[in-house]
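TL;DR need structure tokens for one chain.
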Amino acid sequence: MTPTPCPPLPELEHVETPRLILTAHTLADFACFLYEPARFAKRFDLANVPSPLGTETQDGLTRRYDASCRLDDDQLIWGNIWSVVTRDERLFVGVFCFKGIPEGRDAELAYYVEEPFRNRGYMTETLRAVVGWARGRDDVSGLTAETLLTNVASQRALVKAGFKPYPNAPDSAADSCWLRIDLKSTPY
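>> reply
TL;DR here they are.
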């Protein structure tokens, strides 16, 4: 059976850094990433295919996808995945997403970095770019992220991007910590 060809690429929102291109994707692209990573790689001319996701990451992104399907079109930026790709070699580094429409004017971030690209500064660069992008929006005043207490590299990337510990975060679990950046008052 021949796969159905993907429709032409729409103009997708993106942010560029010296080393990376961050691209906001459509719902169809999100599903393609989750269930057909080789097709996703081909569609976006990537030099590598995203690695299979661990069960927990796959489950979390599937829940995010299901929730995004219920958003209005003008709200999808807060639910869909953004890919992180190297500019020069078109290597897939990872993804990030906002976990829904900003509540109380804060948007929660989640992200995943492929194993070969960890501890190389890519997520710090990504987070700084996301902070810069979010500062230009009127519908969000802060960004938050939850990380496991044992994930020191993730905490370090967030701190380097200007996030600070957020001890009063909602839904804090005993094995996690939250960090937050105030987009309107924290200098960058």
